[in-house]
Amino acid sequence: RKIGIIAGVGDRRDEDIRDCAEIAARMFDHIIIRQEKHLRGRTEQEIIDLILEGIKKANRPVTHEIISKEIEAIKHAITIAEDGTFITALSDVVTNAIGIVQEYLDKENEENLS
């Protein structure tokens, strides 16, 4: 299973946002849509609608959900992941994403040592 955490950027052309989402839908089995910190001239709903249009354009049975905050989206992806799941997070603050993953790895290591 492949999970992708994606976002749209408000100052991009409509077709660019749709195309990115379509490509993501061809790559992932499940997509978590999150939002950038700065919407850059659009509403959150406008961006989500364009992303959903792109996902539908891929014409694949891709599931999706919306979790606006990046940190919560990453935590959720880790929580629903099963053994062998591949998670890709398109992050605007990479150090935050790495920190969350590291927390889970540290917790897992502690549990394995107990």
How does the SSE layout of this entry go?
Elements: E1 2-6, H1 14-27, E2 30-33, H2 44-57, E3 63-66, H3 70-80, E4 86-89, H4 94-113
Parallel strand pairs: 1-2, 1-4, 2-3
Helix pairs in contact: 1-2, 3-4
Describe the structure.
The chain has four helices and four strands. The protein is an alpha/beta fold and 114 residues long. The chain has one domain (2-113): Mur ligase, C-terminal domain (Protein-Tyrosine Phosphatase, Chain A). The chain has a four-stranded parallel beta sheet with strand order 3-2-1-4, with helices on both faces. Helix 1 crosses helix 2 and helix 3 (70-80) runs parallel beside helix 4 (94-113). The longest helix is centred in the C-terminal third of the chain and has 20 residues, at 94-113. The chain is globular and about 50 Å long. The mean pLDDT is 93.
What structural keywords apply?
alpha/beta; Protein-Tyrosine Phosphatase, Chain A; four-stranded parallel sheet; 52% helix
Give the uncertain stretches in residue-range form: none
Structural class: alpha/beta
**Could you tell me the strand content as a percent range?**
5-15%
The CATH architecture: Alpha-Beta Complex
For the largest sheet, list the strands in their spatial order: 3-2-1-4
Characterize the largest beta sheet: strand count, sense, and whether it forms a barrel.
Answer: 4 strands, parallel
Order of helices and strands: EHEHEHEH
Tally of helical runs: 4
